[in-house]
Amino acid sequence: MTNVNKRSGKTMHAEIAGAGFAGLVAAVALRQRGWSVRLHEKGPELRAFGAGIYLWHNGLRVMEGVGVLEDILNGSHTPPTYETWLHNKSVSRETFNGLPWRIMTRQHLHQTLANKARAEGVEVVIDSEVVGADPSGEIRLASGEVKKADLVIGADGVGSKVRDSIGFEQDRWTSVDGLIRLIVPRKKRELGHGEWDNTIDMWNFWPRVQRILYSPCNDDDLYLGLMAPASDPNGSRVPIHLECWVEMFPFLEPVLIEAAKLKTARYDRYETTKLDEWTRGKVALVGDAAHAMCPSLAQGAGCAMVNAYSLAMELEEIPDVEEALRSWEKRMRPLTDRCQAVSGEYTANRSLSKGNQFTSRALEAARYDPTRRVFSW
User: Fold this and answer.
1) How many other CB atoms sit within 10 Å of the CB of residue 78?
2) Chain segment 145-183, per-residue pLDDT in tens
3) Could you tell me if 272 and 293 are in contact, meaning their C-beta atoms sit under 8 angstroms apart?
4) What pLDDT, in 10s, does the model give residues 187-210?
5) Which end of the chain is flanked by fewer CB atoms within 10 Å, N or C?
6) What is the four-CA torsion angle of 152, 156, 162, 163, rounded to 10 degrees?
7) Residue 200 burial (C-beta neighbours within 10 Å; 0-12, 13-18, 19+)
8) What CA–CA distance (Å, rounded) separates 33 from 7?
């Protein structure tokens, strides 16, 4: 592979802060287009944070675009239906008119992308924290080193130091609800009779607000999302308050017992970040650094990876980096903003509890194919 930009004939180099999903996708996609790429991870190893993840059509097309779709499909699961329960009674069963979707552990997705990055020749640097950046194309490391680049990508999460060091104007807010995300053994036999291969979104509003998103990832692993208001000391407690959850969802006792054993669980309130702009000079922000969103549509990571991949496409077509970044934001921002807004609205109103809420408006981002820039389904 050559490191020469096809249009300009110049070797182009990118420095990327953050080795999460967005950072990895950006690194791989740029490397595949002739860039040299250095990816900085502040931790001592590359690893996924969180538990499970949904990938919809948009995210799966990104996986196809970077060449890992087959690996992603192996070890993940598409449920027969997305079922919604209200007060332990089914109120809807949705199949999204055949729109592809997949559930997997975050570790499966992250490891697949990390392996691809290394195979493509991305320089991965661990124990390397980016603490600042400059629009001229520089990053500053915690070690005091300064690295120059033709492109800087801030993929360093909701608390982005790349973003904050440059001074992007932003609004940030948290929701009243939060989530405990866990991976536990499926215990399908112990659960007994039932359609336990489905995603089941279980809502209760009495005697208190509690929700469990039951999401099978594969034959062995179950992703549980346990939602409760931050004001509920038992529902938001970690490790989980077993009696509190079993009382509301007694049929899930076998997996909740497993969940209660996990001492490293954490409760996270939903955060939203909205910026006036995503780019400044030669710096672009992707993922939660630019547009953290509530999880109601399960599109936070999907939009992050779509935008990271689309950025590489734009840079391939437009040789001037700053012009390409402006063009990329103009192209991708409206769709992301609409997805963020709907997700926030659904979270504030707890709309998913009604069932049949995956309307064409809610699925707009999911239907986007970034590899061809068209909407499918």
Assistant:
1) 13
2) 999 999 999 999 999 999 999 999 999 999 999 999 999
3) yes
4) 999 999 999 999 999 999 999 999
5) N
6) 110
7) buried
8) 11
Under 8 Å CB-to-CB from 341, ≥6 apart: which residues? none
SS3 66: helix
Rounded distance between C-alpha atoms, residue 22 and residue 306, angstroms:
8
The Cα–Cα gap between 119 and 223 comes to: 29
- Would strands 199-204 and 138-141 be described as parallel, antiparallel, or unpaired? unpaired
Note the helical H segments in the chain.
Answer: 21-31, 57-66, 69-73, 106-120, 161-166, 188-191, 242-248, 253-260, 288-291, 300-317, 321-349
For residue 353, the 8-state DSSP code is G
Residues 6+ apart with CB under 8 A from 238: 180, 265, 266, 267
CA distance 89 to 6: 58
The Cβ-side half-sphere exposure at 325, using a 13 Å CA radius, reads 19
Report yes or no: 66 and 154 within 8 Å, Cβ to Cβ. Answer: no
